[in-house]
């Protein structure tokens, strides 16, 4: 493999990994606060893609308006999931919330099949994002450069919010001791809702960029990216926002580079992600940047 080909695969891996990282952040934020795996998160990702499809393709709205509608719609759905499925079970055994999360995921997927139909729908890519150009012998597409750039900017903004604002302080406090935080007068339910809103908005952005990168939408499109993002969150250290992005990037590079160096193994591309999960759980269960978290009863 020559240098130009390696750089081509490097850019592809960077784009794919940054998308996994954006989705993984939603998993890691909710787990960090509630010790709950929000299995419906991949379906919020799917809804974001569908909202931008209907806004821009079906109803011919400008792309900027479609992006705002998609992010707002997916964020509202994330808040609705928390309000209906998780908040009533806040004081119930954790297994109840886990079962509720699985049920919500299946409901959203099957409801989407009924409403949107199970047929994949094509997404029209804006020509300005697909106008390829060459740089040093490497074929570059603006969309492939835009995806990691937007992802890193959003993660930086999220880290600033978590570590420099009162809302972020409340999130970090709840992650350590939810009951003491409630006794101190912090609006716990509102802060948890904010966490779901932020995670859902990032998932929506990832869904929009995924639909542009792989131009089609379907009701089950969030299942495999959702699983892989969960693996990325575990690999990076679930509960750690930088770890989630690092895990997503690592998983993207593992997938792309394994196929690049071993083309005959391309059929096992998805299997590499689950092998990575097994290895990290055996070798370092807390992940690359994770800390051992106390279980909440």
Structure description:
The chain is mainly alpha-helical. It has one domain (3-115, 139-283): ABC transporter involved in vitamin B12 uptake, BtuC, CATH 1.10.3470. The chain contains 12 helices and 4 strands. The strands form 2 sheets. Strands 1-4 form a two-stranded antiparallel ribbon. Strand 2 and strand 3 (138-140) form a beta hairpin. It is globular, with a radius of gyration of 19 Å. The model has no long low-confidence stretch (mean pLDDT 90).
Write the layout of secondary structure elements.
Layout: H1 3-34, H2 41-58, H3 63-86, H4 94-116, E1 121-122, H5 127-130, E2 133-135, E3 138-140, H6 142-164, H7 166-176, H8 178-183, H9 188-213, E4 216-217, H10 223-236, H11 241-261, H12 269-283
Antiparallel strand pairs: 1-4, 2-3
Low-pLDDT runs of 5+ residues are none
| Oligomeric assembly | single chain
Q: Largest beta sheet: what is the strand line-up? A: 1-4
Structure class: mainly alpha
- CATH domain topology: ABC transporter involved in vitamin B12 uptake, BtuC
Order of SSEs, N→C? HHHHEHEEHHHHEHHH
Shape: globular
Please tell me the total number of domains. Answer: 1
Distance between the termini: 52 Å
Specify the helix fraction band. Answer: over 70%
Q: Please report the total strand number as a whole number.
A: 4
* The CATH top-level class label: Mainly Alpha
Mean pLDDT level: 90
Strand portion: under 5%
Number of helices: 12
């Amino acid at each position: 493999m020559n240098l130009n080909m390696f750089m081509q695969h490097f850019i592809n891996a960077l784009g794919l990994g940054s998308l996994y990282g954006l989705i993984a952040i939603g998993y890691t934020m909710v787990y960090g606060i509630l010790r709950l795996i929000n299995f419906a998160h991949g379906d919020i990702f799917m809804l974001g893609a569908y909202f931008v499809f209907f806004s821009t393709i079906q109803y011919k709205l400008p792309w900027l308006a479609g992006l705002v509608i998609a992010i707002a719609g997916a964020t509202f759905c994330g808040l609705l999931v928390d309000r209906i499925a998780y908040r009533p079970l806040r004081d119930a055994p954790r297994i109840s919330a886990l079962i509720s999360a699985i049920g919500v995921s299946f409901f959203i997927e099957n409801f989407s099949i009924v409403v949107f139909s199970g047929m994949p729908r094509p997404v029209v890519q804006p020509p300005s994002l697909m106008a390829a150009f060459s740089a040093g012998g490497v074929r570059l597409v603006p969309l492939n450069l835009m995806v990691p750039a937007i992802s890193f900017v959003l993660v930086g903004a999220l880290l600033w919010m978590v570590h420099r604002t009162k809302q972020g302080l409340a999130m970090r406090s709840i992650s350590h001791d939810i009951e003491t935080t409630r006794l101190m007068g912090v609006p716990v339910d509102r802060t948890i809702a904010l966490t779901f809103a932020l995670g859902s908005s990032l998932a929506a952005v990832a869904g929009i960029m995924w639909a542009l990168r792989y131009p089609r939408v379907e009701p089950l499109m969030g299942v495999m990216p959702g699983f892989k993002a969960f693996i990325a969150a575990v690999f990076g250290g679930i509960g750690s926002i930088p770890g989630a992005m690092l895990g997503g990037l690592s998983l993207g590079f593992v997938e792309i580079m394994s196929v690049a160096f071993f083309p005959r193994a391309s059929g096992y591309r998805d299997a590499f992600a689950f092998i990575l999960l097994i290895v990290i759980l055996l070798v370092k269960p807390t992940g690359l940047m994770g800390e051992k978290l106390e279980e909440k009863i």
